[in-house]
Write a structure and sequence with these properties.
By secondary structure, this protein is of the alpha/beta class. It is built from four helices and ten strands. The mean pLDDT is 94.
Length: 224
């Protein structure tokens, strides 16, 4: 809770990559019965927005699969407001749907199907980066709405320091024209390949979700 806005957070996974777990470890599996109970319990706490984090989807697939689409549809049908997905290790699309003017109820929704890789040793194309998502919530009287939503591309820069690999998470827009920052020309080129691939994917598939770019020492939404 902050600034008189109360947010609930739930977290689920499709599985544990084959690892077993017992009573001493609590794992919320993606299960419609469990999620229905949790969502109902969360709604009783008088929250303004409910965010669900989902660990789901096919690895290295740039489009969400039917499992993701059906699960998202189920969650939104239960009045979840925001879904943040991960696991595919590559970026997937983001969709923002504003409140419908034909209805009195607040029914806006936001989803990112996959954030890609944030910290990772995977160096293959499209797997060497990801994004951060920014949401600004605004409260008017008793209604909380998403005032602004966007993403910031990030790339994992790996370089050798004292015979050990050092990993830095670079905000792409801030470094995409700064070739002197990189020890090797090929690293600068690889980052820009990731940027080009990501922008093409998200520009073609996103709905009402734009990129934050670094301009004049501040991060602004790119509305072009």
């Amino acid at each position: 809770e902050k600034n008189n806005i109360k947010v609930g957070i739930l977290n689920y996974t499709y599985g544990t990559n084959g690892l077993s777990f017992g009573d001493s470890v609590h794992v919320n599996l993606i299960d419609t019965t469990l999620m229905t109970k949790d969502i109902a319990k969360a709604k009783q706490l008088d929250i303004d927005k409910l965010i669900v984090f989902t660990h789901w989807g096919g690895e290295y697939k740039e489009q969400p699969d039917n499992y993701q689409l059906k699960t998202a549809q189920f969650l939104f049908s239960k009045n979840v407001d925001i879904i943040i997905g991960s696991h595919p290790h590559v970026l997937q699309k983001m969709i923002y749907v504003p409140k419908s003017k034909s209805q009195d109820k607040l029914n806006e929704s936001f989803i990112v199907y996959s954030l890609g890789n944030y910290v990772s040793n995977q160096r293959d194309r499209r797997k060497d980066g990801g994004c951060m998502v920014k949401l600004i919530l605004q409260k008017n009287e008793q209604e909380v709405r998403i005032k602004e939503c966007g993403y910031l591309l990030t790339w994992v820069y790996r370089k050798l320091i004292d015979s050990k690999y050092n990993y830095q998470i670079l905000p792409c827009s801030k470094f995409e024209n700064d070739s002197m920052f990189f020890d090797k020309k090929e690293d600068f080129q690889k980052m820009n390949v990731f940027i080009d691939d990501s922008r093409k994917l998200l520009d073609e598939n996103n709905l009402s979700v734009s990129e934050y770019i670094f301009k004049e020492n501040q991060w602004i939404i790119n509305d072009e």
